[in-house]
Amino acid sequence: MKKLNKVTRWMALAGGLIMIPSLLLPIWRIDLFAPQYPEGLYMLIWKDHLSGDVQVINGLNHYIGMKHISEDMFPELNYITYVLYGMIGIGIITFSIRRVWMLWTHAVLLISAAGLALYDFYKWGYDYGHNLDPNAAIQVPGMSYQPPLLGHKKLLNFDAWSTPGQGGWFILAGAVLVIGALLLEYFYFKKRSNTLA
Amino acid sequence: MKLNMKGLFLAIIMAFVVIAMFFSGCKPKGGISSLTSDAASKVYVPPGSYDEFYLFTSGGFSGQLGVYGLPSGRLLREIPIFSFDSEEGYGFSEETKAMLETSFGFIPWDDSHHPELSQTNGEVDGRWLFINANNTPRIARVDLTTFTTEEIIELPNTGGNHASAFITDNNEYVVSASRFSIPIGQREAAIDSYKEEFDGVATFISVDPKSGTMSPGFQLILPPFDYDLAHTGKGPSSGWMFFTCYNSEEANTLLEVNASQRDKDFIMAINWKKVEEYVKSGNGTKMPINVAHNYRDHNKGGMAVSERYTEITTIKPEEIPGLIYYIPCPKSPHGCDVDPTGQYFCAGGKLAAVVPVYSFEKMQQAIASKSFEGDVEGIPVLKYDAVLQGEVKDAGLGPLHTEFDNEGNAYTSFFVSSEIVKWKVATQEVIDKAPTYYSIGHLCVPGGDSRKPWGKYVIALNKITKDRYLPTGPALTQSAQLYSIEGEKMELLLDFPTIGEPHYAQALPAELIKDKQVKIFKIEESTHPYVAKGEKEATVYREGNIVHVKMTSIRSHFNPDNIEGIRVGDVVYFHVTNLEQDWDVPHGFAIQGAENAELLIMPGETLTLKWVPKRSGVFPMYCTDFCSALHQEMQGYVRVSPAGSNVPLKFHTNNKGL
Amino acid sequence: MKSVLSILLTGCLLAACGPKATDNKTLAEKPNSMFSDDDRSIAEGKGIGEVKEVTLNNPLDASRVQRGLDIYDMKCSACHQLDTVRLVGPGWQGLTQTRKPEWIMNMITNVDVMLEKDPEAQKLLQLCLTRMPNQNVSIGDARDILEFMRQNDGE
Question: In angstroms, what separates the C-alpha of A14 from chain B's closest C-alpha?
Answer without folding.
Answer: 8
